[in-house]
Amino acid sequence: MKRVFILFLCCLAISIGVSYSFNFFNDHFFHFKASGNQDEEVPTFYILLLGPLLETVIFQYVVYNFLSYIKIKKDWICIILMSLIFSLVHYYSIFYVLMVFFSSLASHYFYITTLKKNAILSFFGTFLLHSMYNLFGYLFVV
Fold first, then answer.
1. What local confidence, expressed as pLDDT, does residue 11 receive?
2. What is the pTM assigned to this prediction?
C-alpha cells in the first residue's frame, strides 16, 4: 500500500508539473486558449467529482477493457492510446490537447500499474488522482 501511495503522489506531481509547465509557456509565449471552460461557469461538483468519475469510467475502465479485448497487451501502447483518446476529447486548442495528453500519461500509467494488483484501488485511485489534478487547476490555473 505504501508503494501505491508513493506512486499516486509521483503521478500527481508529474501531472501537475506538466500542466504547470505548459501553462507557464502558454502564458509567456504562445497565448493559446487554455480551455473551453473559461467563458462559462462549470459547477465545482462537476469539476471535482462528476467529471473525474465519468472520465475514469470511460477513458480508463472502458478504453482499457476494449484495448485488452482487441488483444493489445503492451502496457505502454495502452497508456499512449488511452492518453490520445482522452486528450482528443478535450479539444479546445492544439495546445490544450498536447497538455492533456502529456499530463494524462501519468494517470493512465497509475491506472494500469495498480490494476494488476487491485482493480478497485486502481479505479478509485485514478478517480482521486484526476479529482486532485482538477482541484489544482481550479484553485491555481483558471
1. 97
2. 0.90
